[in-house]
Amino acid sequence: MLDDGSGPLPLPGTSATAPKAHWNDRDVALSCHVTTHRIVFLDEKDVVGGAIPLPLIESAQAAGGPSFRSPRASYKVELSTHAWGNLTVVFRGGETSS
Questions:
Q1: How far is CA 58 from CA 32, 43, 47, 55, 88, in A?
Q2: φ/ψ of residue 75, rounded to 5
Q3: DSSP string for 18-83
Q4: What's the CA gap between 98 and 95, in Å, rounded?
Q5: Maximum Cα–Cα distance for the chain, whole Å?
Q6: In which band, very low, low, confident or very high, does the pLDDT at 7 lie, cut at 50, 70 and 90?
Q7: How far apart (Å, rounded) are the C-alpha atoms in residues 66 and 43?
Q8: Of residues 48, 86, 65, 21, the one with CA closest to residue 40
Q9: Which of 14, 26, 62, 65 has its CA 20 to 30 A from that of 92?
């Protein structure tokens, strides 16, 4: 079942109602959607999702990305939130040629 983003987000691994699970800091099937009221994260493979309501976001800025010296660098979105502190979402850069 997908979370509609109306409730608070727990810190990873601290929800009393969620089963105990290892926090996975990498998810290749994750997509990020920005709406008028929230930032929504969806995992298409595991059919789970979560959202951060925009009023809880103090600031958001782009970081990283390809450059002449680092053509395969990852794009990043840095979020500063009132509830969870600083969060960085990293989108994987291009594939290596090895």
A1: 18, 25, 28, 8, 14
A2: -80, 145
A3: SPP----S--TTEEEEE-SSEEEEEETTTTEEEEEEGGGEEEEEEEE---SS-TTPPEEEEEEETT
A4: 9
A5: 47
A6: low
A7: 25
A8: 48
A9: 14
Give me the pLDDT at residue 59, please. Answer: 93
Residue for token digits 């979370």?
Answer: 3
pTM of the model: 0.57
Read off the tokens for 10: 């727990």
d(CA 8, CA 87) in angstroms, rounded, equals 16
pLDDT tens per residue across span 71-87: 888 888 899 988 888 98
Q: Measure the CA–CA gap between 95 and 86, rounded to whole angstroms.
A: 27
C-alpha to C-alpha distance for 89 and 43, rounded to whole angstroms: 14
